[in-house]
Write a structure and sequence with these properties.
By secondary structure, the chain is α/β, with parallel strands linked by helices. It has 16 helices and ten strands. The chain binds 5-phosphoarabinonic acid (PA5). The site of 5-phosphoarabinonic acid has 14 residues, from loops.
């Protein structure tokens, strides 16, 4: 099985020659990825990762996951951006967005350190009360403020509950192999560490220990996940444009962008895919939004958001296109019951599968949005199994790199992320930035 692109609902917005003209550019972009000669080529470690990963570390990840499962009721994963989105996205996508209520014999998993909200962190602390906890702190740089704050708080909590010796058994750090404050601290305290490879940026790190450890703790088969990604690599790295879904997706979105469609909405009809959309938004937004260019990535879950954003998509500013994830086989089966009285008038769909009804909602929406001037690319995936999720990860990652090269940007840097940090540090009076802090305070006062 494989990811496929259904072009039926984008056809009327794109002429055949536009697609054939752009094919060479997509293939050239893929050649840059293959030859590792494009901008940011130092960050292409994810390309061969599904077949070229550290087997010893992979075994340690599985062993640590087993240990965490035995020792803990709750795993707190501390990280922000690429250091948490992939894990959360694919736990929810493969298992459920209600994972923490349906976790079975696996620990509950909470994600902390992805904001600076006292309420958010306090809630997680409350949810841990009376439970055995483990912590996986994830930070490539080891210096990011949000996770560093959360780690201080949770480390204190773990140490006060289990002592330094107990904490050593329960804290796992995923960070740079040698550098950074977190690595030094973890080594000093004797915490088990896992590596974020030098040549893999945060948003491309879901198939490293960053994503794999929490995903394995959730009881997900990480061998199958990697095997799916490896199959996708085999397919997308070797095939030409006409049968390469990753190249076609990259090409279609670039054609639409050149026609003024500068906002892409990732659509799914499955609430379990909501966090996958958050992961996708970081992947595409951080890779392409630079040098005054980029497609703004947004997302919706239908039919839920048809009742809030449907009006805008149907009828608002026409700078939108949608990319619909069409999951062919549902995980669960549920039928509309028959009611002899039919007071709600639903008997016309009695005994029909909810999935069938969801599918009709999708088809109806696709047609309506196309009629409203919104092109729709449909990405078809067979199901939410580990293997197909692995394929989908690789599909989106590779298409993103190709698309970024086609757009003429370096898809692997994120210079813009630093600006808010510099201001925040200055306003907080961090050593060395006091002068800037005073300037910013004066600017704010003068506004
Ligand atoms: O993709 C990225 O580089 C970012 O989203 C980072 O993952 C995020 O800023 C967290 O950085 P770090 O892992 O160094 O704490």
């Amino acid at each position: 099985m494989s990811v496929t692109i259904n072009k039926k609902f984008v056809g009327q917005f794109i002429k055949e020659h536009e697609l054939s003209n752009i094919a060479a550019s997509a293939e050239a972009a893929l050649s840059l990825v293959r030859a590792k000669t494009g901008p940011g080529a130092d960050f292409l470690g994810w390309v061969d990762l599904p077949v070229n990963y550290d087997r010893d570390e992979f075994a340690r990840i599985k062993a640590a996951a087993q240990k965490i499962k035995k020792m803990c009721d709750v795993l707190v994963v501390i990280g922000i951006g690429g250091s948490y989105l992939g894990a959360r996205a694919f736990i929810e996508y493969i298992k459920s967005n209600n994972y923490n209520s349906l976790h079975g014999d696996c620990p509950e998993i909470y994600f902390a350190g992805n904001s600076i909200s006292a309420s958010a962190l306090s809630d997680i602390i409350k949810m841990c009360e009376g439970k055995d906890i483990c912590v996986n702190v994830v930070s490539k740089s080891g210096t990011t403020t949000e996770p560093a704050i959360a780690f201080r708080i949770f480390r204190d909590l773990v140490v006060s509950k289990y002592g330094e010796d107990g904490a050593r058994e329960r804290i796992f750090a995923t960070t740079d192999k040698a550098r950074g404050t977190l690595k030094a601290f973890a080594d000093e305290k004797g915490y088990e560490t896992f590596v974020v490879p030098d040549d893999i940026g945060g948003r491309y790190s879901v198939l490293t220990a960053v994503g794999l450890l929490p995903i394995a703790v959730a009881g997900i088969d990480i061998d199958a996940l990697m095997a799916g990604a490896a199959a996708a690599r085999e397919e997308y790295m070797s095939r030409g444009f006409s049968d390469n879904a990753a190249l076609q997706y990259a090409a279609l979105r670039n054609i639409l962008y050149r026609k003024g469609k500068d906002t892409e909405i990732l659509v799914s009809y499955e609430p379990a895919a909501q966090m996958l959309s958050e992961w996708w938004k970081q992947l595409y937004g951080e890779s392409e939004g630079k040098d005054g260019k980029g497609i703004y990535p947004s997302s919706v879950v239908f039919s839920t958001d048809l009742h809030s954003l449907g009006q805008f998509i149907q009828d608002g500013k026409r700078n939108l296109f949608e990319t619909v994830i069409d999951i062919k086989s549902p995980k669960d089966s549920l039928k509309v019951p028959h009611d002899p009285l039919d007071t709600d008038g639903l008997n016309y769909i009695a005994n029909r599968e909810l999935d069938e009804i969801n599918h009709k909602a999708m088809l109806g929406t696709l047609l309506a949005h196309v009629d409203g001037g919104v092109p729709n690319i449909v990405v078809e995936t067979p199901d939410r199994s580990e293997a197909e999720a692995g394929r989908l990860i690789y599909f989106f990652e590779l298409a993103c790199a190709v698309s970024g090269y086609m757009l003429g940007v370096n898809p692997f840097d994120q210079p813009g992320v630093e600006s808010y940090k510099k201001n925040m540090f200055a306003l907080l009076g961090k050593k060395g930035s006091e002068e800037r802090g005073r300037e910013l305070e004066a600017r704010i006062a003068a506004l």
